[in-house]
Amino acid sequence: MSQIVISPKQVKDKQGVVILPVKEYRRLLAAAVPTYYLKGKAAKDLDKLVAEGMREYRAGKTRTIRSLSNLD
């Protein structure tokens, strides 16, 4: 078996080290949620939708449900 040498300076600079089996790393990688950045019209449309939802929430026009079957 070969040895792995990890410099304490590099561990400190990178704020730690994580050692995982390759199979676990691939599982975590596949489960990661991608980050999307919207631009232009799509971003403005989403901003308006969120603002409208927040206005309705503050006005008390929303309700808490436990299941989608409660939507009526």
Description:
The protein has a domain at 35-64. Helix content is 49%, strand content 0%. The chain has three helices and no strands. It is mostly helical. The protein is elongated, with a radius of gyration of 23 Å. The chain starts with 7 loop residues before the first helix and ends in a 14-residue tail after the last helix.
Descriptive tags:
mainly alpha; 72 residues
Q: Give the termini distance in whole angstroms.
A: 64 Å
**Helix fraction bin:** 40-55%
Q: Structural class of the helix and strand makeup?
A: mainly alpha
Q: What is the CA-based Rg, rounded?
A: 23 Å
Q: Which H/E pattern describes the elements?
A: HHH
Mean pLDDT: 90
**3D shape:** elongated
Give the structure's gist in a few sentences.
This protein is mainly alpha-helical and 72 residues long. Helices cover 49% and strands 0% of the residues. It has a domain at 35-64.
Chain-wise SSE layout:
Blueprint: H1 8-13, H2 22-31, H3 40-58
